[in-house]
Amino acid sequence: MKLILLGPPGAGKGTQAKILTDRYNIPQISTGDILRAAVKDKTAMGIKAKEFMDSGALVPDEVVVGIVSDRLLDPDCTAGFILDGFPRTVPQAEALAATLSRMGRDLDKVISLEVDPEALVERLTGRRTCRECGAGYHISFDPPQKDGVCNLCGGELFHRDDDNEETIRKRLDVYLQQTAPLISFYERAGILSSLDGLRSIAEVEQEIQHLLQA
Ligand code: ADP
Ligand code: ADP
Ligand code: ZN
After folding, report:
1. Residues measured by CB to lie within 5 Å of ligand 3, the ion
2. 3-state DSSP helix/strand/coil % of the chain, to nearest 5
3. Active site amino acids
């Protein structure tokens, strides 16, 4: 299963990717997670990426294309993978197609999660993430059993700096201008399925399950 989850920030890509990872035993490749780890470790790439991320802009294409091309060579990607948050621009999608074609592979499906902007602001301002294992929660829609503590590992939950209303609005603009064109890009390729991402986490999970069995 070689899959892309497409959608605006807060659409539920990470949440669904984690569910699919467990079900199909294939890795989630989240460029956002990889970049945040680089920022935390203060690598050269992290130092460069931080400014873009803090302002809600996209990190340059060549940086993320390099990350994903390397990651796809790892042995755990042989059975498949779930790309979450990549590609985000048409040049990234073209680079991905070239990389996969060099590897003799191609994508099975692109699932686009559709959620309107107001719901996204509420989702992102209420998002909490585990500092230790990266699990995601929402203070109202998917709360942890114990306030501020991860159900899975007991780690501390934190609120991302870029999940403030001003940066969220900027990220939504960036999505509309640079990422939304990928919907027609993959429609033309004949591998796009869109679904209503406004429904509950469990309902979206079921719908994805149907799509993948079709
Ligand atoms: P993305 O990876 O697309 O940016 P996330 O999966 O991190 O989005 O979800 C954003 C926030 O919304 C998280 O707090 C998550 O718990 C919550 N969330 C995800 N899917 C749903 C859903 N279907 N209904 C309500 N809240 C959701
Ligand atoms: P979300 O899905 O909530 O918007 P991510 O964790 O996917 O957030 O991304 C956080 C930030 O990391 C983005 O705002 C952007 O600066 C950077 N980023 C992640 N993926 C990419 C990508 N494919 N291309 C460019 N920048 C990216
Ligand atoms: Zn945890």
Report:
1. 130, 132-133, 135, 150, 152-153, 155
2. 50, 15, 35
3. 13, 88, 127, 160, 171
| Global pTM exceeds 0.90 | yes
Q: Is the CB of 85 under 6 A from ligand 2?
A: yes
Domain range annotation of the chain? 2-27+74-213
Q: Output the CA–CA distances (angstroms, integers) from residue 61 to 6, 18, 27, 52, 210, in the order listed.
A: 17, 25, 22, 12, 33
Ligand 2 atom having least distance to the Cα of 56:
14
What ligand 1 atom has the least distance to the C-alpha of 7? 3
**Domain 2-27+74-213 annotated CATH 3.40.50.410:** no
Per-residue pLDDT reduced to its tens digit, 94-104: 999 999 999 99
If DSSP codes are grouped into helix, strand and coil, which group holds residue 26?
coil
